[in-house]
Design brief:
With about 200 residues, the chain is mainly alpha-helical. Helices cover about 75% and strands about 0% of the residues. It is built from 10 helices and no strands.
Length: about 200
């Protein structure tokens, strides 16, 4: 294969898409550069050329996951009211939206030891996602969590609650009155908003 094979078009983007598909279909334990290359229809050396190793590719995939998480949150914010509490609820709903739509990627980002969490791209993307929650709590409380321990406690509690709810949802462990798979439309949205309001506001 020539270097042109390694450089064609948006190969790095295509490899990330193939990597996510491979993760979803075959799981993280079976993940390999060879499998990703085959799925993307490129030479076996192409993924290593761009990402060095399977860990490097998974790290990049997780980093893009955080960027997509922020996009999901901002999409919710754009549809919400301008009041600080409404914006904070929207940030939480965006978190849940992303987790439900991308459960395998969500687990890679938050639960897996595979990504290199010291990687610059990963660190920047993860901090940007955390910054959404910091900004939301700052607006609700009227003070900077970074400078006020009590406000940072609220950030930690809010994140723990939203993340825990997301994990319960994607694991299918909510049942009884909270069996969300049996609730749809406005009723589901209202229930989630009320849960988040209790925790976030």
């Amino acid at each position: 294969m020539t270097d042109k094979t390694y450089h064609h078009g948006n190969l790095a983007v295509e490899l990330l898409q193939a990597a996510e598909r491979e993760l979803v279909l075959n799981g993280i334990e079976a993940f390999s550069l060879r499998a990703v290359a085959k799925r993307a229809g490129v030479s076996h050396g192409a993924p290593a050329y761009h990402f060095k190793s399977a860990r490097g590719l998974l790290t990049a995939l997780a980093a893009t996951g955080y960027e997509r998480l922020v996009e999901a949150q901002e999409a919710r914010q754009s549809d919400a009211g301008s009041a600080p509490k409404e914006q904070l609820i929207a940030i939480g709903l965006g978190y849940l939206d992303f987790a439900e739509a991308n459960p395998d990627l969500f687990r890679l980002m938050f639960s897996s030891e595979k990504p290199d969490r010291g990687d610059a791209h990963f660190d920047t993307a993860a901090k940007a996602a955390f910054g959404k929650l910091l900004d939301g709590v700052r607006e609700v409380l009227g003070r900077d969590p970074s400078a006020h321990p009590s406000a940072m406690t609220q950030v930690a509690a809010s994140w723990a609650m939203v993340h825990g709810l997301a994990d319960l949802i994607i694991s299918g462990r909510l049942d009884g009155p909270l069996a969300l798979k049996e609730i749809s439309g406005p009723d589901r949205e209202m229930l989630l908003s009320r849960i988040l309001l209790k925790a976030l506001a």
